[in-house]
């Protein structure tokens, strides 16, 4: 789906949509299948670009992948894993951040790997220094090339003690996926403990791994000689659920998000309630709605789990433009995640961005030249505009703003949104949004 999206705003989103498995878990579980000596099966898999990219990368490595997108089932058979040709793999440069997580499994299976340059959202520098240091600590040899990285483990991989400078999600997953079959014990301190990581640990345990998680962010992994396949149902995508919740709030709507689950969304739900949103947790999902009256401004800091996650920040900021008073948002996870507010200002929002830390959390960006705090003054009516989607969550936020704005907006580059939001055009239609898609050739298709 490429092209231009026309959005006639001003209609509250109303109805029901379904959210399936988490983008930030499913792709990692697919990589974990490489470690098994038998086939694995993953359920509740959403039809999003990141899943497609990882399926293709696994295919290039000889994994047989059978995907039933409708049923959300993916079967992965890694029994014939082989090194992929560099040229083929390189075609995936810039496609997502997941290739870096192939290192550990491929080193165990083949003794070497080639990793293309990474993609993902440009919301900061996103270095991979933790990943490479971790791999070196396990005994890997890292050879950075002009494009991509070649990695080998001539002496095998041995368990080690790792302390993360920051509880990075990817670096924690890197450690898990490498340690489970390394020789001996690995201890990881200051680990990330996001629900998606816990679900990955559940998958690895099903495969035969021995992993314990302490309350002080220490994860211990006892390496084992072999792992089997797994059967697992992915946890729900709490980012997508939070995004639709924010869309309901910003458009004064009422959306039942089937599949959304409470435990992983506790922090979001608290914030949603403080802003003045209403929700009802049901057995099969969560209903989110604007109860009428004014929304309240809040002070918010993004943080690692169990804090308010950074990926919820961008959609919620759009709703905050409709809250009365001054809201303050301190982004402590990424140094450059407020670029999307330029377009919101163009639509009438009053948002100022600051280099200073406007919050009390310890922040790596203090006294550095990063625009990582925002002050939002509301409520301000939003007006339609022409918008270019900058990244996944920023793009969805622009879509929310267009839906809340009076008039007809034109949103370009919506393809990026497919990376993390399954069938979002169908969902918008189900919620009564007035949207139409003009394909690249200029044809307009009503949805
Ligand atoms: C595919 C996926 O799961 N993406 C999620 C994952 O990204 P990802 O795993 O890339 O995010 P990390 O948790 O690793 O990044 C957190 C912070 O650590 C820094 N860092 C990270 C690694 C490193 O080697 N060096 C370094 O400095 C990053 O620049 C960032 O400032 O977690 C993020 C934080 O919840 C989410 O926003 C992303 O949606
Ligand atoms: C930043 C995100 O993802 P990625 O790490 O895949 O870029 C996101 O999902 O908001």
From TrEMBL:
Main subcellular localisation: cytoplasm
Q: Where along the chain is the active site annotated?
A: 121
Subcellular localization is given as:
Cytoplasm
Any Pfam family hit: EPSP_synthase
- InterPro entries (alphabetical): Enolpyruvate_Tfrase_dom, Enolpyruvate_Tfrase_sf, MurA_subfamily, RNA3'P_cycl/enolpyr_Trfase_a/b, UDP_GlcNAc_COvinyl_MurA
- Residues that bind phosphoenolpyruvate, according to the entry? 23-24
Q: Which GO terms describe its molecular function?
A: UDP-N-acetylglucosamine 1-carboxyvinyltransferase activity
Family per record: Belongs to the EPSP synthase family. MurA subfamily.
Name used for this protein in its record? UDP-N-acetylglucosamine 1-carboxyvinyltransferase
The encoding gene: murA
């Amino acid at each position: 789906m490429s092209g231009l999206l026309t959005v006639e705003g001003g209609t509250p989103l109303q109805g029901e949509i379904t959210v399936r498995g988490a983008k930030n878990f499913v792709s990692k579980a697919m990589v974990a299948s490489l470690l098994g000596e038998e086939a694995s099966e993953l359920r509740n898999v959403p039809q999003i670009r990141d899943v497609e990219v990882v399926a293709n990368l696994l295919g290039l490595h000889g994994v047989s992948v059978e995907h039933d997108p409708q049923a959300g089932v993916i079967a992965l058979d890694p029994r014939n894993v082989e090194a992929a040709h560099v040229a083929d793999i390189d075609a995936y440069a810039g496609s997502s951040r997941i290739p870096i997580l192939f290192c550990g499994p491929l080193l165990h299976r083949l003794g070497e790997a080639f990793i293309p340059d990474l993609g993902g959202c440009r919301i900061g520098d996103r270095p991979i220094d933790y990943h490479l240091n971790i791999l070196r600590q396990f005994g890997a040899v890292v050879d950075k090339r002009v494009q991509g990285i070649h990695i080998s483990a001539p002496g095998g991989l041995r368990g080690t003690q790792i302390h993360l400078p920051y509880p990075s999600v990817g670096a924690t997953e890197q450690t898990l996926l490498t340690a489970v079959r390394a020789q001996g014990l690995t201890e990881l301190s200051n680990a990330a403990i996001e629900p998606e990581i816990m679900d990955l640990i559940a998958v690895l345990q099903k495969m035969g791994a021995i992993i314990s998680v302490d309350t002080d962010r220490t994860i211990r992994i006892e390496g084992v000689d072999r792992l089997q396949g797994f059967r697992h149902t992915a946890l729900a995508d709490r980012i997508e659920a939070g995004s639709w919740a924010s869309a309901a709030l910003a458009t004064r709507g009422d959306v039942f998000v089937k599949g959304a689950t409470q435990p992983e969304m506790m922090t979001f739900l608290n914030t949603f309630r403080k802003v003045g949103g209403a929700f009802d947790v049901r057995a099969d999902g969560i209903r989110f709605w604007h109860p009428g009256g004014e929304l309240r401004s809040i002070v918010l800091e993004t943080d690692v789990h169990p804090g308010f996650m950074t990926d919820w920040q961008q959609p919620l900021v759009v709703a905050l433009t409709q809250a009365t008073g001054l809201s303050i948002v301190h982004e402590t996870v990424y140094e450059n995640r407020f670029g999307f507010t330029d377009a919101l200002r163009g639509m009438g929002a009053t948002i100022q961005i600051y280099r200073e830390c406007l919050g009390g959390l310890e922040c790596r960006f203090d006294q550095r030249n990063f625009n990582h705090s925002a002050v939002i003054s509301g409520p301000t009516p939003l007006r339609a505009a022409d918008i270019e989607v900058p990244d996944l969550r920023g793009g969805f936020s622009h879509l929310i703003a267009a839906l809340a704005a009076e008039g007809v907006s034109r949103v370009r580059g919506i393809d990026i949104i497919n990376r993390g939001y399954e069938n979002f055009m169908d969902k918008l239609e189900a919620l009564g949004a007035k949207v139409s898609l003009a394909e690249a050739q200029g044809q307009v298709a009503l949805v």
